Amino acid sequence: MSPLDWVIVVVVLGVTLGLAARFARRASRSTDEFFAGGRSMPWWLAGTSMVATTFAADTPLAVAELVAQSGVAGNWLWWYAALGGMLTVFFFARLWQRSGVLTDVEFVEMRYAGPPAAWLRGVKAVYFGLFANAIVIGWVVLAMSTVFRVLFPGMTVFGQAEVAGLDAPTLAVGGLMLLVGVYSLLSGLIGIAVTDAFQFVLAMGGSVALAWFALDLPEVGGVAGLRAALPADAFRFTPVLGNPVEGAATLALSGVSFAAYLGVQWWASWYPGAEPGGGGYVAQRMLATRSETDSVLSVLWFAIAHYCLRPWPWILVGLAALVLYPGLENPGEGYVMVMRDALPSGLLGLLFAAFLAAFMSTISTQLNWGTSYLVNDLYRRFAVTDRDERHYVLVSRVLTFALAIGGFLVATRLDSVSGAWGLLLSASAGIGLVLILRWYWWRVNAWSELVATVVPLLLVALQLVGVDVPFLTSAFPTNLFGIAGITTACWLIATFVTRPTPGPVLDAFFRKIRPGGPGWRPVAADNPDVVVDAGMGRLVLQWLLGCAAVYAALFGVGWTVLGETLKGVVTLALAFGAIAFLVRSLRAQGAPISA
What we know:
By secondary structure, this protein is an all-alpha fold. Helix content is 71%, strand content 1%. Helix 1 crosses helix 10. It is globular.
C-alpha cells in the first residue's frame, strides 16, 4: 500500500478512538449507561449498530466463498434466517423493550423463579458470555488475519516472520484487538453504537466502491462480461432441489437439507445475530432504545440492511473473483485479491480501513455484550452484590480487556472456522422453541429452558466423541431434525414433571410484559384489567408481510444490479407496498412512526 493508503488508515483509527473518548465520561456513570447506553438510542442508531456488528471481516470473504462454490444461490445458507429476524420484529421487539432488563440473561429471573432460575442465569452467563463469545471472536480474528496475509505477503514483526510461534499477520491482528479492547472499555455501548454507525457507512461505501472498480476491470467487462464468462446457473437466486453435484455452478440441496434450513433451523437454533425470539447483542440494542416503537423499527431496519442492501456488493465482487481467479484453493481469498489488484492508491487504503472498521465494530460489540453477562449476570448476581455503580463499571472495563485477550488466545488455537457455525447451530438445536414460547405460554418454566440449553450440548459432544445416539446419525444440517426433536421431547417432559412458575411471578410478568395469545389465558383470567397486545392473527399477518417485503427487496435489488431492471423495479415496488401496509398496521396499533 502507498503512503496515502496508510494516511487514510491512520485517520480512520484516529476518528474511531476520538469517538470512543467522547463518550468515556458518560459510560462511567453506571452499568446502565455502560451496557445499555442510558436506554436513549433512536431506532436508526440501534439498528445500524446491529447490522455493523454482523458486518465482520469474515463476512465478505464468506459470501465470496459461497458464490464461488454455489453461485448467488449459495447465500441461502444464511438468507433463510430472515424468517426468524422478522419474527423478532413483530412478536418480540416490543416485549423486550417493556421488560427493562439490562441483559437477556437477566430476563430469566424475571420470567422464572427459585434456584432453577438462578442456575439457568449463571449457566447462560458463562456459556454465552465466555465460551461461545470467545469462539466467535476467535473466528473473526482468523478472518482478519487472512486479509493481512493476502494484502501483505512476507509481512514481518521486528524483522521476524514469527514471534512466540505466531506469524506476523496474527500478531498484527492481536495488536488491533487490544486497540479495540481499549476503546470498548472506554466508551460503553453508546460509544460503540456511534462508532458502529461511522464504521458501517465506511465499510458499505468501501464495498460499493470495490464492486464498481471490480466490474470496471477489462478482464471482467461489467455485468455483461460476468454473464458471458460464467454459467447461467451461477446467477440463479434460488437453490436447485436435488443431490449436490461437485463442480455445479449453483447451490443444490437435497429435499431433507432444504427442509432443515427453511423448516427447522431458523426457529430451532441459537446463532449470534439470529437468535429465535431475539437475544444476544440484538436484544441488547432493543433494550437500549428509547421506546417500543424505536425497538420495533430498529430490528426492521436491521433486517432490511442486513439481508437486502449489504450482500449485493460482496456478491458482485465474488462473481468477479470467479472470472479473475478461477480455481482458487481458498475462494474466500478472492475478495481480498480483487481489492489488491483492482483499486487505485487511496481507495485501497479506504477498503483496508473499511475491513478494519468491520472487524472493530464486531469485536467491540462482542466484548461489551459478553462482559455484560459476566458482570451483571455472574459477578454482580452471585459474587459481589452490594457495591456501588462505579465499582461495577470498573470491573466491566477490566473484564472487557481480559475478554479481548482471551478471544485472541482462542483464535491462536483455531485451525479453521469452516465448520464452526454448523457446530454452534447443532449445539443449540431445539432451544429456539423455548426462547419463543417462554413469552407466549405460561407453562414454560426454568427447567424447560435449562434442559433445552444443556441437552443439545450433550448430544453434539456425544457425536464428536463417536458415540451412536438413536435418531441422530446424520451430519449437519440434517442432524438438526434429530437434535431438535430429542431436545424438544426432553424439555417438554421436564416442563410437565416439574412445578409451574409460582403464580405471583407469572402475574408480575404478565402485568409488565402484557403478551397476547391463548397461552396466557389462565393468568389473564386472574388479571382482567391488563390490556394485552394485538391478537396473534394480526401478528402472524404482519410477520408474513414482513418476510415478503424483505425477500422481495432482496431479489429486487439483486435483479436491478445484475441488469434485469424491469423485474427488479417491479419487485422493489411490491416490497415498498408491503412495508407501507406494515407502517399503517403499526399506526393502527397506536405506535406512531417517529424519526
